[in-house]
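If it is no trouble, can you show me the amino acids of a protein and the tokens describing how it folds?
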Amino acid sequence: MTKICERLVRNYRHCRSGFPDLVVWNERKALIVEVKGPGDSLSPKQMLWIDYLVEIGANVVVCHVAAVSNKRIRLDDGD
């Protein structure tokens, strides 16, 4: 988390957008998640953040949410 904060402090104007939607953690691990709905794709700023997070060793995933009917949604983890 320190490297993420340092990046924001050094260049907040260019890094303030594009950070993934969720950060979830327990006592030992953290996971950073970008959520994409049907027909949605990663923006250039989101790709830059994801590349940086992978570079610093963060656990990052893109979660694609797929509609299965007008009453329910199904999470598709890409497998």
